[in-house]
Amino acid sequence: MYISNNINNKRINKVYLENIRSFIERMKYVLPEECLKNMYANIENVSIKQASKHASYSYYSCIDNKIRVINESNSLWHELLHLSSGRYDKTTLTECNGYRITKYSKFHLGVDLDIGMGLNEGYTQLLTERYFSDRKILPDYTLEKYVAETLENVVGREKMEKLYFNADLLGLIRELQKYISNREVINFLNTLDYMSNVLAYINQYKKENKAALRENIIAGCRNINHFLMKIEYTKNHSFSSSPIVKMTICGEIYDIESKEEINEYNKKLMMKSA
């Protein structure tokens, strides 16, 4: 078992050492041993340094096992959770990180598969705020976190965390298939990935391109609404989550779906199951 007091990794900037010790102790306290194996494996030789001055975001690279942060600690907790849920298979060139799977082509010349990014970021943010609320965590990934939290209410917190820390997206998909088809699950994950990418970079789009994206954003949110309502009703025969009615993006209000439209969709679900 890894003992946090013995951290002596020359690849870690000293400014982060105390926070890393705190992170390990917190994880050991709140999680069962079966959820800690990736953390123990990666923390031994991780490289953690401040990102270049031109970087706009922090990140964790599973392939290189390195974290780069844009400030001293606020984003470090989020990236350490990525570290604790990541593994890379050199034989198959496959990176499994929480609820994301990325399969690279030979010599890493491209990507053959990349799915689950949106859900992975949302659940990572949910766990960051859950376990490190005392560390002045900045809000982020609002849509993705809402989706992850809704799914956790369906799957169960203990199971959802176990699958995440063991980098088992396929296990989560099998769990969701108890209530909804595989095709619908894959479409949902791809939609959330698309939405996450659009929302992350929307400030970089020109005004006319933002206008063109408006319909895609609304359609994507509606699809996410319907997926979550369907899976929740299939399992519980009730609706407890609050679907997305409006979103504010770059100061502009997007009308996603009216309460009347949501109620109408709920009625259709109930009629189909009757």
Low-confidence stretches: none
| Average pLDDT for all residues | 91
How far the N terminus sits from the C terminus, by CA atoms, comes to 53 Å
Number of strands: 9
The SSE string, one letter per element, is: HHEEEHEEEEHHHHHHEEH
Oligomer: single chain
> What is the makeup of the main sheet?
4 strands, antiparallel
**Count of alpha and pi helical runs:** 10
Write down the Rg: 20 Å
State the strand order across the main sheet. Answer: 4-5-6-7
Structural class: alpha+beta
Rough outline: globular
Helicity level, as a percent range?
40-55%
Strand content: 5-15%
Could you characterize the architecture of this molecule?
- The chain is built from ten helices and nine strands.
- With 274 residues, it is of the alpha+beta class.
Helix/strand layout:
Blueprint: H1 17-30, H2 37-43, E1 47-50, E2 59-61, E3 66-69, H3 76-84, E4 86-89, E5 94-97, E6 100-104, E7 111-115, H4 117-131, H5 142-155, H6 157-165, H7 169-176, H8 182-201, H9 207-236, E8 246-249, E9 252-255, H10 259-273
Parallel strand pairs: 1-3
Antiparallel strand pairs: 2-3, 4-5, 5-6, 6-7, 8-9
Helix pairs in contact: 2-3, 3-4, 4-5, 5-9, 8-9, 9-10
